[in-house]
Records
---
Amino acid sequence: MSTTTPALPRRSPLSRAGWALTDAWTITRRDLNHWALRPGTVIVGWAFPVMIVLMFGGLFGGAISVPGGGGYFEFLMPGMFTMTMLFGLETTMTAVATDASRGVTDRFRSMPMNASAVVLGRCAADMLNSIVGLSIMIGAGLLLGWRWHGGPAAALAAVGLLLLLRAALLWAGILIGLVAGGPESLASVQILVWPVGFLSNVFVDPATMPAWLGAIAAWNPLSATASATRELFGNPGWGGESWIAQNAMPMAVVWPLLLTAIFLPLSVRRFRRLGS
């Protein structure tokens, strides 16, 4: 089904920017209202990473030798912060696919609203959700004995890198949700989230893997963010002599920017082609 957007009056660039932000905020409030009507789903999404931390800490913590010594949670938490950013990908994919399959996205596109508002509103809502989820994870880590040792500025920089990764993954989630066409089609994609997360240095040193598999894990964008946040928080990490291991900090910025450069235009193009 094709949709026709009504003709809109000409606006100045500043006026168009304000119009886009106003419409985007409307979409954001719409998504937040949906979460308020289904608090159980949102709370489970926030609690799930905490459950994973408790499981790994309780079941495997005593069997894993922390590099450089120290407590297991000191090593685990920065990696789990990174995994939490990845878990948010499923929320984005499901919400976008649901709206697209029910025709909600087409109805938005037929309204006299800025074309970017639907995507921007989705991004804003999911980023707010991710900020709350990351705050809960940090609080859980503090209760379990995790601490940062790099000072407030370094800790804020680490949080910034985590949210930068989440913002990049948002665009991947939007594209996958638009392509999937419905929540049922996402099952096979969601299964891949776990292998992507585990095929990194979050839990295991890539040096212990077969050479080809370790190379993939080392170049996983999650590995760069996990290593960089461990360094900024002053927590123990795997280290390594490879180029990617030695340059985790700049790569924690380069990878999200590269992912955004790839998935943002693809998402926008796919959104514009919906219903055509």
---
Amino acid sequence: MEFLDAAANIGLIERREIFSCPACNEAIEAEAAAEELCPLCGEAFADRGGVRRKFVYRLDIRGTRDIPWVIVIHGFNTHGEWQQDFSWRMGNKLKYSAPVLIYKYGLIRFSVLVRWRHRQLARQLGTTIRSAVEYARANRIYEPPDVVLHSFGSQLFVQLLSTPEFDDLKFGRVIAAGTVIRPDYNWTERIYQGRLEAVFCHCGGKDWAVPLAQYFIPGTGPGARCGFTDNAAINVMNENYGHGGCFELKEVEANLAPGGLWDRFLRWHPSTFDGDANLYRPRAWRPVWAPIRGGVRVVGVVLMALIAAIATTSISWAWFEAIEWTGLVRLL
């Protein structure tokens, strides 16, 4: 029994609690078991020793899926050091080859403030993925890749999904962590279109960065704090996670371990999360009033421009002083 319970706790099998009347021996619903009288025979449960309970276990005949290959995309203002740790542990986790494409679009800061840069980066991402898909097919890997996204990398991904020239690209399971995707994003439509199979949002209760995203980065929202309201999305909240909490080494190991959240999502059918205690139910979300967001964004752009100008001036003066000092040394 302990073995079956352990298997059910990690999603390997399904566990159901069955109730029956001690008088008529008929199965009854859980709601009826909470009443005093049997809805079928009218006898009082207490007179026969109480409602009978037993657990039944069922193996999920759909089994597990193989992870074909994975694409990992980092956030802005970072080199995505976590990508290497993830790739190494994914490679050691599996008993078969599942290539990991580590995609890096460079260290960007100010350009996240403008939409044209989003589109440019999304096209670069799409071109790289299309090339990788062709290479994978040449090596007999025909399944679409799974994707792990962090922060601004998630925004580039949804920008890619909305770019018509890349409508041919299909994806498997998608994990979004520290995401700045709008909580009301229509995942159901993307799944219906065949663009992806399922989406998992790993939320962080201490993620201070994403609530600010909608003010400065156009088209974004606090997905990692609020979760996705679309019923097709699987949301899990960890109250202790910051913006990159799930990519800390111990957390990556725990999430990818057998029965871990990411392991279950990537390898098992999404329905294994139905009724799971880890699920997070997001509330309805509405963006801040557009004029407020626009005003804050304008102020942010102006401040960034001033900082950049001051930094450039400081560098110029430092370079000038260095030249002057070198000339003085030579004169002496």
